[in-house]
Amino acid sequence: MDIINLITIFILAVFVGNEIINKVPPTLHTPLMSGSNAISGIAIVGALLAITIEGELSTYLGLAALICATVNVVGGFLVTDRMLKMFKKK
Amino acid sequence: MMNQTDIQNLLYLISAIGFIVGIKRLSHPKTARSGNFLASLGMLVAIIATLTSGANFDWQLIALGVGIGSILGIVIAARVEMTQMPQMVAIFNGLGGAASGFVASSEYFSGSDSSYIIMCLSVLIGTLTFSGSFIAFGKLQGFISGRAITFTGQQAINALIFTSMIALLFAHNFSLLPNDTIFYTITALALMLGIGLTIPIGGADMPVVISLLNSYSGIAAAATGFLLGNNALIISGSLVGASGLILTNIMCKGMNRSLANVIFGAVGAAPTGGDSDQKEMNIKSYSTTEAAMILDAAEKIIIVPGYGLAVAQAQHVAREVADTLEAQGKKVLYAIHPVAGRMPGHMNVLLAEANVSYDLLKDLDEINPEFEDCDVALILGANDVVNPAARHDESSPIYGMPILNVDKSRTVIINKRSMNPGFAGVQNELFGYDNSIMVFGDAKDMLNDLLKEIKEL
Question: Are residues B235 and B322 both part of a single domain?
Fold first, then answer.
């Protein structure tokens, strides 16, 4: 994809991120962090694409990436849910 | 008709919407859980989009990777204790960086025709996040000294590493060195830089560092997105990058420090001596019985928890005390300073775990006006964040730091183990104030005694 397009998406996403994250109250900053850990596990997409039949070394590097990213995704979303469950109002 | 790539990109867009709306729903505890669920659906969509792209996948290896990763993820998520949340986030930041770094190096070794510079940058950011995060983890877990580790020439070495990396990228442009040599050297230098930047940062500044590394892990994912020309990675990466930066900024403000000062300042290297010029303080030490009597006469009580409370595992009994007081018709609130815990929002999670209702947890701006008509401020394990010197004493290292104005309350009850100074190494003048009384002892024991006393009164 055209690099300018990618930069456009990047900049716009930073602005969106800035807007929505500023609205997250301090009470939820820890779940926000663990949740964003999970979201940064999006590298899983790149990891999967790297695990193809061709090229041994790059496939194994892809596998390493896949394990790391999966821990982030699975662990991140689960632990965030575990925390958010505890926030109750009496 | 849409072709395969269009469909895939559309699915990536849906996944990005899942993340954005998911984070948006984190704006309130009521909707937060559904937001997290929505974000996880977004991730599922992204994974499905990738797996249906028709690439020549090695399915066995994918199953292996997802299997191992899922088991580790489930175990960590189920077993981590709330006090260990900073360590866990540090590990996850590191894994996020590592994942991006591995993807970029895999791309490099596959003989891809992607931009060499972007490949190197992506590996660089990922690797730096990885090594920095594991040092942060080591410090939080106590494997490495939590104190700032400094030596002369430290900043010069970091600067040298950094300029060498830039020089290497230029060297590539002029074909001065073999590509592989440059690639390996940059990776090794990035590992060193991550360590070099984190090791001089002291324990009290860890909330800033974790937030910053959180941001890096997002930027690493975004860089990988540029490398692969993938929107999903760019959007999610920049959301995380922005989130980490905002939290970093909040933490810096909470300590009245600039980011540069945290990274290069190395506060807390050695005990800040010079106690000789300390003013004599007249400290009144009370028993729990006397403290219970003061609380009995109070109508509005604000509890100020610090990390010492969590260390003593006393959140639950603190909540019981609060519940008992509430049942007697008193108003009880909790004042949460931005840097009360070991990471952004940490104290809130620790109190939520102890079943404190989230609407009672008030942040700095909300609670400070409340101290004016407050009968008792009960300080449990907090120190620097309630030191009035931050408001007026320009010579104090914490001068200018936003604090909880507990001294405005009619009475301030301070529970402390001993008279040891806090993280900033400064003695707290609050302890000597006329309206302050000290109750010494372990927070858990003291609160258990207090609970008995107020029930009997």
Answer: no
pLDDT 10s digits, B372-409? 999 999 999 898 899 999 999 888 888 899 999 999 99
Same domain, B325 and B441: yes
**Å from A4 to nearest chain B CA?**
10
One domain for residues B258 and B309: no
Which of chain B's residues have a Cβ under 8 Å away from the Cβ of A58? 106-110
Active site includes B384? yes
Say which CATH number the domain at B322 has.
3.40.50.1220
Length of chain A: 90
Q: Say which of B103, B243, B357 has its CB closest to residue A36.
A: B243
Task: Give kind and range of the element (H or E) at residue B263.
Answer: helix B259-265
Same domain, B63 and B106: no
In-domain check, residue A40: yes
Q: Which domain holds residue B309?
A: 283-456
Burial B131-156 (b: 16+ CB within 10 A, else e): bbbbbbbbbbeeebebbbbeeeebee
Active-site residue identified among B113, B375, B384, B445 = B384
B223 and B366 in a common domain: no
Q: Which of A28, A36, A58 sits opposite B345 (nearest CB)?
A: A28
Read off the tokens for B67: 């299997």
pLDDT digits (tens, 9 = 90+) for B65-83: 999 999 999 999 999 999 9
pLDDT, tens only, B210-266: 999 999 999 999 999 999 999 999 999 999 999 999 999 999 999 888 888 887 765
CA angle B253, A41, B47 (to 5 degrees): 145
**CA neighbours within 13 Å on the CB side: how many for B251?**
28
**Min Cα–Cα distance to chain A from B273, Å:** 34
Cβ(B103)–Cβ(A47) below 8 Å: yes
Residue B188 has pLDDT above 80, yes or no: yes
Q: To the nearest 5 percent, what fractions of chain B are helix, strand and coil? A: 65, 5, 25
- Among B236, B265, B294, the domain-final residue is B265
pTM value is 0.92
